[in-house]
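Step 1: inspect the first sequence and its tokens.
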Amino acid sequence: MDVPTPDKPFLSDVKTLRSRARKHLEGGALGSTYGGDPKKTIKILQAVLATEIVCVLRYTQNSIVATGLSSEGVKAEFAEHAKEEQEHVMAVAERITQLGGEPDFNPEGLCARSASEYKVGGSLVDMIRENLIAERIAVDHYRELIRYFGEDDPSTRRMLEWILSVEEEHADDMHDLLVAHEGRPMLAK
């Protein structure tokens, strides 16, 4: 019997859980208690996917073309960020699939679907600055999406929280590189 208590959330009995699990198997992992709109979530995640792909491309390009006396460490940082952004791509694509969608890797319109822009700087400092801007866009965007998904889709929210934590690290790294290469602190301490 289902008995809610004042200090505990309502829990379904085992028979109810089993019965719900057997219904609507075509829903895959979503089940009957998914609180979000899968079609809208997929559309949002397609934009997240595009954002992450653009970041992979920008960081990869930067890791190859950066030049200058102090470029080797920065190139390695760009390459590491590209690898981590690729991990985000895979996680988002997998989530889209779990929700019943098909990840859109079509390069046509990629930049239009992305929150970040594909801007490559001419100099090493310009590249760092553009990457910092892109990371700040991603951080703000993912914070908004985390609030949007809330408890309606905790799996998507947790994935975005993980991505956000990495994007914040990337922004911090780009800020530190910008300070190192411009010789002045950008943030008040």
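Step 2: inspect the second sequence and its tokens, then contrast the two.
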Amino acid sequence: MVTVEEYRVESDTMGEVKVPNSAYYGAQTQRAVENFPISGIRLPKEFIRAMALVKLAAARANIQLGLLEPKKGEAIVSAAKEVMEGSLYDQFVVDVFQTGSGTSTNMNANEVIANRAIELLGGKRGDKKLAKALEQKTIEFDDVVKAGRTHLQDAVPVTLGQEFSAYSSMIRHGIKRAELARDTLLELPLGGTATGTGLNAHPKYAELAIREVNRLTGLNFKKAENAFESMQGKDACVEASGLLKTIAASLMKIANDLRLLNSGPRTGLGEIDIPATEPGSSIMPGKVNPVIPEAVNLIAAQVIGNDAAITVCGSLGQLELNIMMPVIAYDLLQSIEILANGSRVLGEKCISGITADRERCYNYADRSLMVVTAITPHIGYDNAAKVAKKAIAENKSVRQVILEEKILPKEKLDEILDLKKMTKGGRA
């Protein structure tokens, strides 16, 4: 049973509030806790750390400008550092579903840092590893000839290495998109204060604060070209989310291809073998499922859903302020984290250990009906189609039909149906 003695009474412009004695936060945070008992989801540590970093930079800028007494300012800097190190994360208790500007979380930070400062005064890459793992398999599987498939139907041969080269290229492009997403977020509206006008801010505040942010992060943040735009709209966040969604789409395609190529072991394609990481069924002994690609699919679906939410939130910047920022921050940070972690796990626990069933791959390629495409220039399209249809009807390979019908001599046929040569566009 909670007793009155476990609380202290604080006041703000709306009156008195009971706040837990152990809390560094104060009245406004407590009001938010009581007003928004929605999900139990808090903004992640990365966001709180970034916010504390900005508070630290702001304090140092104001010390330099003579607007903050050095002793108090350095206490604020020390308190902000503690928040950045994670030791006070339990003090950030406001639900992510709160006031749309994130004011409650901002005041939560102000109260925690201020109270800790008073006390002191005495009173994340995964995708690059994935790309390297895929590039290694591109080389390893370069000589593994297999059936190509389009529309999930037989197509002309490719090599397994060529398939993996496509995956590698998708991830390399994804890395560039991730870097572009980062760059879109480098404009900061610091100094814009309430609506973008800069009311009550020193003219040099933004420049000094951002310089300190850059010193602390090693990044190249800059003052927003237009503070009004940066505060009203969150287009940079929407753009970044869209780029992350594209990466998610690539990962989902790769994961599903791996599941198809690994399907079986007796009744599927079975062209590759994915490392077994855990039992696949409580009822079917010996069953092993492609759990890592499945997890990547779940991640991709979440990122795509986050993008939809961020897009809606980004559109709700009525007049001078976007009022959906907490959800934008939460979803964007979640997308970044799970994409990075999922990519790393896919590379380490799946791609790196994939092996090829070379014999099965070759047999599929040899029996593929569409090797008939290479015969077309020699016997004509209509005759080639007849060969394919006869092969289907009699369950024979194209090679068997052509030899039985004596359409081409064996030596010529062997030259034309050189499967490895076909994967190079017919060039040796």
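Step 3: confirm your contrast with the notes below.
Residues 386 and 392 are 10 Å apart (CA to CA). The first helix runs from residue 27 to 35.
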